[in-house]
Protein: 16S rRNA (Guanine(966)-N(2))-methyltransferase RsmD
Organism: Sinomonas halotolerans
Amino acid sequence: MSRIIAGISGGTPLASVPGSGTRPTTDRVKEALFSRLEALGMIARARVLDLYAGSGALGVEAASRGASTVELVETDAKAVGVCQRNARTVNDAVGRRAVTVHRSKVQGFLEKTLEGQHWDLVFLDPPYDLAEASLAAVLEALAPHLAPDAVVVVERSSRSAEPAWPEGLGLLSERKYGETRLWFAEPVAGDRGASDPDATVEA
């Protein structure tokens, strides 16, 4: 059973999505991911967007660790119900509505996002069968809505190619954990950003 790892709700079990329609992030990968994000100072008071949220595990983890606001975007009805239950768990713990759930397709949600609305931290954990062109279109729609110091985390199969970053968004680093690869990107000036010296790390 998945759980919230740390923060005000640390140790709390999470409701999971029944069936095989989603691919939850393992606790091992989640712990490594959040350790890195906290080292970068990306969690506390952050405005967080969790796309293809599944159970909402990444978003509610961020809320438990001190994110200011978290928005979960998911289209599957069963997954949305699970997101709502997990959101209530964290909202009750923090004493406010830190987590909001949106039932929507990701592309549609981004297209309706108001001009001037920006996020500091964005998670994208799309189904592995999502076409690379579709992922590229989502990243392009997302890019105008990132804060200047934002970080975008894309979770894919370790066999997947690097995402096609749109203008204004470039690779920061990547990490590989078994069958999972995490791509970290950031807003950049120009077409591409330079990755860090140890961009590819296998754990």
Notes: The chain is about 30% helix and 25% strand. Residues 74 and 116 are 22 Å apart (CA to CA). The mean pLDDT is 91.
